[in-house]
Amino acid sequence: MGVALTRSAQWTAAGHGAKTLEVTPLNEAIVKEIILFVESFIYKYPQEANYVFVEPLEWKTNLDPSAFGSGYAVSGTTVKSEEVDKNGEPLLYLSVPQIKIRSFGQLSRMLYFAKNMKLKEAQACIEANENPVAKILGFDYNIINEKNGNSFVSSILDKITKDDGPEIEIKMKIALQLKQLDLHLLNHSLKHISLEIRLNPGTVKNDIELLKRFSGKGEQTVLESIEYTSDYEFSNGCRAPPWRQIKGEICYLLVKPHDAEILCVTCSKEGVFLNGGKTDDEGQINYERKGEIYKDLVTLLKEKSAIFSENMSKQEVKFSEQPQKDQPNEAPKEEVAITHKASIASRKSSQEKNRINLGRSQLTKRLEPSLNWRTSVSSKDRNTLRDTQAEKHGGKLEKSRSSLSPGRAQLIRKSIEKIEEIISDSSSESEEDEEQPDHRQETNADLPSEYWQIQKLVKYLKGGNQTATVIALCSMKDFNLAQETCQLAIRDVGGLEVLINLLETDEVKCKIGSLKILKEISHNPQIRRNIVDLGGLPVMVNILDSPHKSLKCLAAETIANVAKFRRARQVVRHHGGITKLVALLDCGKHSAEPAQSSLYETRDVEVARCGALALWSCSKSYANKEAIRKAGGIPLLARLLKTSHENMLIPVVGTLQECASEENYRAAIKAERIIENLVKNLNSENEQLQEHCAMAIYQCAEDEETRDLVRLHGGLKPLASLLNNTDNKERLAAVTGAIWKCSISKENVTKFREYKAIETLVGLLTDQPEEVLVNVVGALGECCQEHENRVVIRKCGGIQPLVNLLVGINQALLVNVTKAVGACAVEPESMMIIDRLDGVRLLWSLLKNPHPDVKASAAWALCPCIQNAKDAGEMVRSFVGGLELVVNLLKSDNKEVLASVCAVITNIAKDQENLAVITDHGVVPLLSKLANTNNDKLRRHLAETISRCCMWGRNRVAFGEHKAVAPLVRYLKSNDTNVHRATAQALYQLSEDADNCITMHENGAVKLLLDMVGSPDEELQEAAAGCISNIRRLALAIEKARYS
Amino acid sequence: MNRKKLQKLTDSLTKNCKHFSKFEVKCLINHFYNLVGEVTERQGMIIGLDRNAFRNILHMTFGMTDDMIMDRVFRGFDKDNDGCISVTEWVYGLSVFLRGTLEEKMKYCFEVFDLNGDGFISKEEMFHMLKNSLLKQPSEEDPDEGIKDLVEITLKKMDHDHDGKLSFADYEQAVREETLLLEAFGPCLPDPKSQKEFEAQVFKDPNEFNEV
């Protein structure tokens, strides 16, 4: 038992008080085996069961004294066993909550009393008694046990021969039993362990690299980001610190899925699990396991993120498709390899500012082992982009790519661009560090003169007193700091360290000078990262407390520049920067400032502006949004919004817009009357301000009250008029977004019609970037809910461009387009146009789209199309394989898809011939399988479909056979009248079959239906009554049959 | 000094010095006499702070260390060049020193830096003022090379008319572009912290003053 417990059982990390057993299947199995052993002990070895332990086993129990039955003296909170030892002490003594047990007999009895708490008690016992064998048999036995398991038996025999006696003999027997149990447990746990897949650093690394390449912003990627917590890799491939590697841990990851919080994941040899996350700013990880163990990273992420699993399945499809596609292109691929090498060679000779490129190509080279087609394509792209020498091969490369279907090629290119972005982003630090030395050596000759001058200045910074430092800083500021060569020169000669060091001195002038430079060079993404790595942010955050306003301003502005990436924002938050920045916003309160301000001072307004600027940058992280809110930032932002300085308004509105993605903020924005000012600023002259205001309205207008507020404050008109200016695409996207969200309210739509916005929107359906299109189409989709607007759209020729957009690949766009087309199809005249443009076929093919939202939206759009098309039955039949496709969608597990497909089937089934075809495709069993659902929307459409499908052949009977009737009866208990109506109609149809009537009656349908007869809804009344009459008629017929 | 005379002095100084309130002027005068000590008034004897006493104040109160600059500051205060700072000079001097506008301070600083008072800060003067500003590196052949280079850098930055020396116009333009250059050749104004401490110490309890 000792060996098994120390070696196999999975203990949680020490250092948290007493050791505890982790809740794992393995541990549970071990504890169960031990229970089994103890319980059976009293029967198998009655004599040994009376043996009194050397020391009692003692632990905290949850057992109630009242649980103990006969054989025990129970008094209040104590229990004593009547069984006593030689000295008259009870063998079981419970004084809540401590329990002491001194024999196996008592142990097994205790387990008997514990009943279903057995497992807990046993676990508590094992946890509290670290060395049970020693306690039971005395310490010397344990030592043998631990030291040398094999010679155990022989040494026992030795002992027996040495000192004989009944006591010892029993002890020996128990020892042997325990030894056997130990072996048994070890074998048992071995079985468990062998089931687990052992991971190794190599596979984990491959997984991560692969995922990294599919991460980034945007819909197509599987994750937003995935990164190691540590850049250092040990020679064995692990990244965990050595003392954790002992536990089998390989590395720790921070994974940000699209639809969840950041996950802190441990990859260990046992598998992959969530750990306690980063505990503090030092980057310490709480290594404790916080969730189940998964066999690998992908399984864990699939479990945690729906979007991941969905996009992953897409990527997998692509993976499996691609190799065959690439087969015929072997030759061009080889050429690529050659040009790739050539490119590196040429780059070496030209040795221009290619450091990053070099880094990237090295990265791809390093990834080579795990690479397949994808990198070859990406290197193609890179070469064609960057390599002038390879240009002659360009034609061939183009050809090889054009062999892919255009849609996919575009998609692939996109994802490659994304991947590249991410690689450059996440790897820049380590890459640069590696590149630095040889960069210096090889480029000494043709370094620009600025480099040397800057190096000299940095030397003076290092070795000068305050006066010399200020002169050097001022002189450095005169270089063109916006230029990358200068930025990197400052870094490469070690200037960043000095500049950051200066911030920690007491010299105001030096700090000001240093910040002025940092502010400029931090526009460079690499410098930002270097500043963070050198610990510059905490120092700047501290400066925010300084009494000097200009210092505060500069620090805030620099933070605004640096906090453009996630890690930096996190550092700002962890050092309390958000609170301090919010405090900067609070200007004007201390208006009683001394009249004679010092020379280096600025105005309060400027301080607030810089604060807002920094908050804007920081507000791109979710946790920071929360922090800003908690620090009371919203009322302050609201107050600043009332000013009329554009410089101030842009960061303020920018912050609000960024934060408005959170529900809490939207509520606060409403409460603080911010909408009014947003609307006011829509009329500003500044395009950027207009854009951010529109964006903020877009975010906030999810809420109905806000939409009304926008209208009441007259915000719709400026929005509509901004539509006419289409040059600034960002602003156009924001404005159309705001219009989209606002037009969810009917009253707003009416206003938009007045302002002729709908015509303008139709005009924007062509030649616009996707971001704009999504919003434009979304807005049109909302407008189309009204008849008048549908007419307007048709009249100004909006249907054609809408249908054209059905071939796109942007998922958000497709969802909106299908919705708009569907809304248009309600109009028979529009439907004719859609039909002529082959829009129905396009919609139908969208049912094959991998994304469920698109599928569902396309299916909803198909419903009015089928309803309103002339000769719909014939049209539907003309889609080869279309009906089968629809029926198979019933196997989806997305409720919205199912409901929409049911609606489509209802419409299809109106045509007898089609109904026959879908019956042959097995629609009945599929529908019946769906019947057990709680989703009212699905219930309603499902019931409608069932009632419609009953019209063919023996489908009624078939539904009964597939047990669809009983669940349907339960739908009548729903709260939704739409469900009631559809269900009553379905039941009415089903009740034409006698067996179904019996099932309904058995499930208590009659009473429920009787209630429905009293409903004000006539259709419902009628269907319910019809159904009851069918049931009744059957009953009468049976009675009649019985008596005649 | 009798009360009437003191009153008159306070009034005239308050009138001519716009940066201090009457109370503050009173405080400063009081502080001045505290610093001068209990020298009894005698006819023909100038009461004031001599060079050493003033340098001591600059060093102790305002944390200045550079002897040359302190000397120049003394000269800046000592308008009549009599080697002694009178109470009037004290109040006027401090008005610029503590509360001066940028213009006033530029003028004051330029005077401090213009060692020979010829209206220009020459290369030699700069070298003189900056000679202790860099850590001497033993490896360098010419230990002054760094200083010379620093002077060149400063000239490049500030000498707008390229005549190899700084006129007041050059200096003014450079400072207006970058305020940090106000004290380009050494600290000759109080740093904000010691200024605050000084003001807090001198302009305190009005009741205490009334009793004097």
UniProtKB/TrEMBL annotation, chain A:
Residues 313-338, 379-401 have a biased composition (Basic and acidic residues). InterPro entries: ARM-like (IPR011989), ARM-type_fold (IPR016024), Armadillo (IPR000225). Residues 313-409, 423-446 are annotated as: Disordered. ARM repeats lie at residues 535-577, 881-923, 963-996, 1004-1031. It is found in: Cytoplasm, Cytoskeleton, Cilium axoneme; Cytoplasm, Cytoskeleton, Cilium basal body. Keywords: Cell projection, Coiled coil, Cytoplasm, Cytoskeleton, Repeat. It comes from the Eukaryota. Its main location: cytoplasm. GO terms for cellular component: axoneme; ciliary base. Residues 668-695 form a coiled coil. GO terms for biological process: cilium movement; determination of left/right symmetry; heart development; outer dynein arm assembly; regulation of cilium beat frequency; ventricular system development. PANTHER family: ARMADILLO REPEAT-CONTAINING PROTEIN 4 ARMC4, OUTER DYNEIN ARM-DOCKING COMPLEX SUBUNIT 2. Component of the outer dynein arm-docking complex (ODA-DC) that mediates outer dynein arms (ODA) binding onto the doublet microtubule. Involved in mediating assembly of both ODAs and their axonemal docking complex onto ciliary microtubules. This is Outer dynein arm-docking complex subunit 2. It comes from Moschus moschiferus. The lineage of its organism: Eukaryota, Metazoa, Chordata, Craniata, Vertebrata.
TrEMBL record, chain B:
This is Calaxin. It comes from the Eukaryota. GO terms for cellular component: sperm flagellum. The keyword Repeat applies. The keyword Metal-binding applies. GO terms for biological process: regulation of flagellated sperm motility. Residues 65-100, 101-136, 146-181 form the EF-hand domain. Keywords: Calcium, Metal-binding, Repeat. The gene is CLXN. GO terms for molecular function: calcium ion binding. Pfam families: EF-hand_5, EF-hand_7.
